[in-house]
Design goal:
By secondary structure, the chain is mostly beta strands. It is built from 1 helix and 11 strands; from the N terminus they run E-E-E-E-E-E-E-E-E-H-E-E. The strands form 2 sheets. Strands 2, 4, 5, 6, 9, 10 and 11 form a 7-stranded mixed sheet that branches.
Length: 130
Amino acid sequence: QLAIVESGGGSVQPGGSLTLSCTVSGFSTDDYVLGWIRQAPGKDREGVSCMGSNEGRTYYDDTVKGRFTISMDNAKNTVFLQMNDMKPEDTGIYYCVADELHLGYTVQAMCVLHRTFGSWGQGTQVTVSS
């Protein structure tokens, strides 16, 4: 069982920045995927960004490309999401997710098919509003 601790989030005006962080413990492998899944009000959850630990492969949803940056501190099993030039449509609950890289899956596939992740954080609220 993985333990997930999220931090960050909050409220910001359009154009502003926020950073989310998430530390995961309990991995039995060094080949895993960490990421962020977002649920906007009234919408289904969607994969925002994910990153693999082994080769550093990343995935970004088209709506955040060029604005969000995911990074990972492998030594600390921590993933960060730097969110810049934020927009009102970025508002939602952001969940940190973690799991070993599933056989036959890419980082992108796991992020898009986010229900494949076995471990979820409690979620942190991000609000972008003027």
